[in-house]
UniProtKB/TrEMBL annotation:
Signal peptide: none annotated. Residues 6-125 form the VOC domain. It comes from the Bacteria. It comes from Bacillus oleivorans. This is VOC domain-containing protein. InterPro entries: Glyas_Bleomycin-R_OHBP_Dase, Glyas_Fos-R_dOase_dom, VOC_core.
């Protein structure tokens, strides 16, 4: 299990810092630092750094294998985030869906897409044992 004294770090490319800041702040992420070539956010308690790299952008993103996101342990947090995304007109890559219906690993999920075509998945497993 993760201790509270650890923060996961993820670095991703972005094509425009202003658009990136607008998207992640709209998502509810706090801007921690901004430099000429990158921005750092508090992404649900972890650190996401968006490095300016317009040549690194995936012009045709696919859900698999490249995405990142949050797995909620409480269904209400998942529902609240989904409602928040809808209310704030965040761009969906896929609509909310149920994956692996009827199986032990059944879960709720939706994907957002940021201005640099990075895909963000938000999900909730009915069986907490399936989280890992």
């Amino acid at each position: 299990m993760r201790n509270t004294n650890k923060v996961f770090h993820l670095a991703i490319p972005c094509k425009d810092l202003d658009d990136t800041v607008e998207f992640y702040e709209k998502l509810g992420c706090q801007l921690a630092r901004r430099y000429d070539d990158r921005v750092t956010f508090n992404f649900f308690g972890d650190q996401v750094v968006c490095h300016l790299g317009p040549d690194e952008i995936d012009n045709e993103p696919k859900m698999y294998p490249r995405h990142f996101g949050i797995t909620f342990l409480e269904k209400q947090e998942y529902n609240d985030t989904l409602e928040y995304a809808i209310r704030h007109n965040l761009p969906f890559f896929t609509e909310p869906m149920v994956r692996f219906e009827g199986r032990q690993e059944e879960h709720l999920t939706f994907f957002l897409i940021d201005p640099s075509n990075n895909l963000l998945e938000f999900k909730y497993y009915y069986d907490v044992n399936m989280v890992y």
